[in-house]
Amino acid sequence: MVSCPICSLTVKRSQSNLTCNNCKHLFHPECVSLKKEDVDFLTSANKLWTCQNCTKSMKILQQSDFSNSPVTSQSSDKHFDSTDLKRILSSLDDVRAEQSKLFDLVNNQSKKLDVLDNKFTCVLTELSALKEENKILRNNIDSLVNRVVSLETKQLNSSSNDDAFSEFIDRQSRSKNVILFNVREPIDNSENNSDISTVNLILRNLGVDIKPVIVQRLGKPNNNCRPIKVLLPSISDVYKILGSTRKLKSDQTFNDVKITSDKTPKQRQH
Question: What is the pTM of this model?
């Protein structure tokens, strides 16, 4: 049985142990302040280890750099004492801590990217919804425009129909009238009676037996002869008079008189 030089207890081969490269003694890892993980690291890295007593006796100079190792005056092999190993392990712990920080940073950035990705997805969804709404709005606007055009067309048609109806009524109201031009106006105050007598005389000269219903001068008095509007009993009387107007050409008194039907403003434009 081999005992540990520090605790004097037996060091079993089946247990985790360290062998000093110089004195070849077996040590319990906990007796030299090392953990099982430290021993596993030395074993897997195939590193040599020297106990503190041998290190002192060999007067090995300590190196502060991780890559430098204690060197004995009797051997060219590289050695690691407990101080160097602790420094290395401390450096490894620092590296692991930095690595952990990097992992945390990467995870945080990844979470932020996930959040941004979700926001971007939401924005795309909203844009898609806006496109659909714009499409619906365009359709509604087109529908409104069509309705406005339809209403305007109906209004125009209605206005046209109203105009046509008004024109029809106006023509009907004028259908029994004839207009006499170039009939001299009387000088005395009995204007209406004189005009009636003159119209009756003209009708007799035309050879028609028609009694006017109304005889009326059109417009305000002026230096010119105003036309006379004559309302007749029927439309057929209008045709009789218009068909006989050629007889006035041979009448010395009324050969300048012109007789026409009572036309609407629209009829006079054509």
Answer: 0.42
* 195/190 Cα distance (integer angstroms): 9
- Residue 191 is predicted with a pLDDT of 56
d(Cα 216, Cα 191) in Å, to the nearest integer? 10
In a domain, 6, yes or no: no
SS3 content of the chain, % helix, strand, coil (to 5): 55, 10, 35
Q: How far apart are CA 234 and CA 227, in angstroms?
A: 21
Q: How far is CA 92 from the centre of its chain?
A: 59
Q: Model confidence at 80, in pLDDT bands (50, 70, 90)?
A: low
Q: Is residue 126 part of a domain?
A: no
What total number of domains does the chain contain? 2
186 located within any domain: yes
CATH of the domain at 200: 3.30.70.330
**Structural domain boundaries enclosing 29:** 18-50
